[in-house]
Amino acid sequence: MGTYREAWASFPVLIRQYHPEFNRGITLTQVPPAADVLLTWQCDTGHVFVATPEEQRRRPGRGRRRSSWCPDCAEAAAPRTPVLPMADQVRWPGASPLVAGPVAGGSAAGAAASAAAGGSAAAGSPRPRRGARDGMPSSRGTGRDRRGKDGTPSAAAPADADHPASADRPAARVAAPPPARARRSPAVCAKTPDLPVGEPFASACAPPPASAVEERLRQDLAARLECMSPLNAVRLARPFFEHLEAWPDILLPELRVAIEYDSTGRHGLEHVGRREEADRRKDRALRAAGWEVIRIRTGKLPPLGPYDLCVSGLTRGTVDQLLDRLREIRGPFLVDAYLREVPPSAAAG
Fold first, then answer.
1. Burial (Cβ within 10 Å: 0-12, 13-18, ≥19) of residue 45
2. How far apart are CA 113 and CA 108, in angstroms?
3. Contacts of 147 (CB under 8 A, 6+ apart)
């Protein structure tokens, strides 16, 4: 039921979060992914919130937390800096909450203790200056601080009668706000060797394989092809996430083909939303460097390129389909030249 079933199939988390009874009986497969409408969602924890389909599909960012799919869960996982619970006791009344410095006064208990010790100290204690922006006591008696309409001290203010020496002092200059710093682009990693664009190499920045399925795919492919390589990076012409290199899952340097294994992951965060856009950028960068990309897409992920394979998982026939794709790209004569001889026992089995 619904026209957009395939568009939502790769988002199992959103399928669980969406409830037709919260949205006037409309099913998720009836909602276009680009529809500018507010829908009601409910996460696995029970938080109910509203968001557009595009907002939910783009919600996973760089983090790999399950809480990324819910704004309330994301806020609880990474709370903002809280306000001090005793801020009203450690600052003068009317002081700005942004004031940072030593406490001039004290708590009510401290004031009572000082009053009991001696009344003269309490009587001589300075009071907060009227109109002070920081709430600190005035060091010049009870003289009124004259300010202009914009809140800055008046340069033509007369000298205080109690302090005639102040007339000899020049007017204090108002400190200009610091200039806004220009937004700097992220620096490009300098560990990439100076190689021609498209040259494969062993990168020191490439992360180690974290998926057991990828390692199994590598072993199954190595049992069929002799052109497997331990290299893990390709030199690019332009930076890709602060590196002049890309790290495909498997590299076939003799065929100039990169192989990627994609799944949505445990929490449905991988290769969807913004991560799908990053995959497309990576494929364009590799193709611009003279490589072709084959993505093995699982978990109902849609194909991104002309040679991608959409499979349910890694099976015995996956390697055969992958070899057929390699023949389509580089031709059967070149690919078959790297095939290993199948042992008689394996051929009989």
1. exposed
2. 9
3. 131, 153, 154
Q: How far apart are CA 29 and CA 1, in angstroms?
A: 7
Q: What is the CATH number of domain 200-341?
A: 3.40.960
Pairing, β 292-297 against β 257-262: parallel
Separation of alpha carbons 12 and 43, rounded Å:
12
How far, in Å, CA of 149 to CA of 345, rounded? Answer: 94
CATH 3.40.960 domain locations along the chain: 200-341
**Whole-structure pTM value:** 0.56
Stretch (H or E) spanning 257 = strand 257-262
Task: Look up tokens 């199948």; give the residue.
Answer: 342
The length of the chain, given as a count of residues: 349
What one-letter code names the amino acid at 76? A
SS3 300: coil
pLDDT digits (tens, 9 = 90+) for 320-344: 999 999 999 999 999 999 998 764 4
